[in-house]
């Protein structure tokens, strides 16, 4: 694959990011990071053994995914990705144990030791939430409800959803300063954000020191990424167009998506920020601009690469995905299931993206853009 498939950081003013700790790493290693959560149900039978290694001064165990002369990419038992230098003889030792994901109790103890006595680890059915002591169940409930709403919404529309292989971890810091200290420790290079989903650690990191509604929207957006990649809605070994991954993240920012209101009118579930941006810059008076944005997003990810166009990329991606999910749910499910099952480690070329879209959705980009725009105007 010639390019990384992860969504890039949103501009600082947007307060959302899907972050990789090592953005400059060789493409092969970035692609391998997609494998978190993509371990077959019979992985222990398929894997002959594990490696034991040291990373950040700690001993870990995991399964080697890629072995090069100068770098070994290892999937840890907690679902995290590690880069190890095999040339350092004492750094890697092969063990005969079969690979198994870390049990929840073991991971909980590891998190307690990692974050110290000022934090508590609260468990839900699908999450381990690390938070400052005394914060109650607000954040655990938000993460859990976000995931349940995500799986329910997708399942209702026929999208293939499976159980994740690893407990999902979310870390809530007491304030922005504490969160950024963690970013520096993990070498996550972002600024002025309210939270991230880190693909290497497979964790959502946020803080409890800002405007509650903004932080909650951040959590829902980043938790949607985490849920999608841990439940197989997005594949970690295929090149998924960004308008799909980020359109899904945008969809779940709305508080109605994680409340009982999600069963009512589509307008209640709409992302108002995206609607306002579309209406102010891509209204019916500028129909050609909306069409061009749709066509480009279907074919490539370039609109996400520039500060001048990234806001438009997020807004139009939301409109495209929300229209499909609400008005063409069968095609929405076919499209999601198709992108999740594409051949592993193969770049999704522009011509193939356009062809597949037209075949699955049943519309050419022009007719599709008109329907999306009419739908958005009706909300």
Task: Give structural notes.
This protein has 379 residues and is of the alpha/beta class. It is 43% helix and 15% strand. It has helices at 27-32, 43-46, 104-115, 138-156, 176-186, 212-230, 242-251, 266-269, 272-281, 287-299, 310-327, 329-340, 350-361, 365-378; strands at residues 17-19, 50-55, 58-67, 72-76, 81-84, 92-95, 119-123, 127-132, 168-173, 195-198, 203-207. Strand 10 (195-198) and strand 11 (203-207) form a beta hairpin. The longest helix is centred in the middle third of the chain and has 19 residues, at 138-156. It is globular, with a radius of gyration of 21 Å. Residues 1-48 have low confidence and may be disordered.
Top-tier CATH class of the largest domain: Alpha Beta
Helix-strand sequence:
EHHEEEEEHEEHEHEEHHHHHHHHH
Radius of gyration: 21 Å
How many structurally independent domains?
3
**What is the percentage of strand-forming residues?**
15-25%
Residue share in helix = 40-55%
* Total E-strand runs: 11
Low-confidence blocks of residues: 1-48
Q: How many individual helices? A: 14
- CATH architecture annotation name of the largest domain: 3-Layer(aba) Sandwich
Profile the largest sheet.
Answer: 6 strands, mixed
Strand order of the largest sheet: 1-10-11-9-8-7
Give the CATH topology of the largest domain: Glutaredoxin
Tell me, briefly, the overall form: globular
């Amino acid at each position: 694959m010639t390019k990384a498939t992860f969504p890039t950081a949103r501009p600082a003013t947007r307060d959302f990011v899907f972050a990789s700790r090592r953005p400059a790493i060789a493409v092969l290693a970035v692609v391998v990071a997609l494998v978190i959560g993509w371990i077959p149900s019979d992985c222990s039978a398929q894997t002959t053994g594990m490696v034991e290694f040291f990373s950040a001064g700690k001993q870990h165990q995991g399964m080697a995914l890629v072995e090069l002369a100068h770098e070994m990419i290892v999937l840890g038992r907690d679902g995290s990705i590690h880069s190890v230098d095999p040339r350092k003889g004492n750094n890697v030792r092969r063990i005969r144990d079969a690979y198994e994901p870390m049990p929840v109790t073991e991971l909980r103890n590891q998190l307690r030791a990692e974050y110290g006595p000022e934090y508590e680890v609260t468990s839900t059915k699908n999450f381990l939430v690390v938070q400052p002591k005394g914060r109650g169940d607000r954040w655990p409930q938000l993460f859990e409800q976000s995931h349940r709403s995500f799986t329910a919404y997708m399942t209702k529309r026929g999208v293939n959803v499976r159980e994740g292989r690893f407990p999902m971890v979310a870390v809530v810091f007491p304030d922005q300063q504490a969160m950024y200290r963690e970013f520096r420790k993990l070498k996550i290079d972002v600024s002025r954000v309210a939270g991230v989903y880190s693909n290497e650690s497979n964790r959502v990191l946020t803080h409890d020191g800002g405007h509650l509604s903004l932080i909650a929207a951040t959590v829902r957006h980043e938790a949607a990424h985490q849920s999608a990649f841990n439940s197989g809605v997005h594949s970690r070994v295929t090149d998924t167009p960004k308008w799909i991954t980020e359109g899904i993240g945008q969809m779940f920012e709305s508080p109605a998506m994680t409340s009982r209101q999600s069963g009512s009118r589509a307008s209640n579930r709409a992302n108002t920020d995206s609607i306002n941006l579309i209406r102010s810059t891509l209204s019916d008076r500028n129909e050609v601009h909306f069409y061009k944005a749709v066509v480009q997003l279907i074919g490539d990810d370039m609109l996400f690469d520039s500060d001048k166009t990234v806001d438009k990329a997020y807004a139009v991606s939301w409109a495209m995905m929300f229209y499909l999910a609400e008005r063409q749910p069968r095609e929405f499910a076919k499209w999601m299931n198709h992108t999740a099952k594409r051949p592993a480690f193969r770049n999704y070329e522009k011509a193939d993206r356009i062809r597949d879209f037209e075949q699955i959705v049943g519309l050419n980009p022009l007719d599709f853009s008109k329907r999306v725009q009419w739908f958005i105007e009706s909300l």
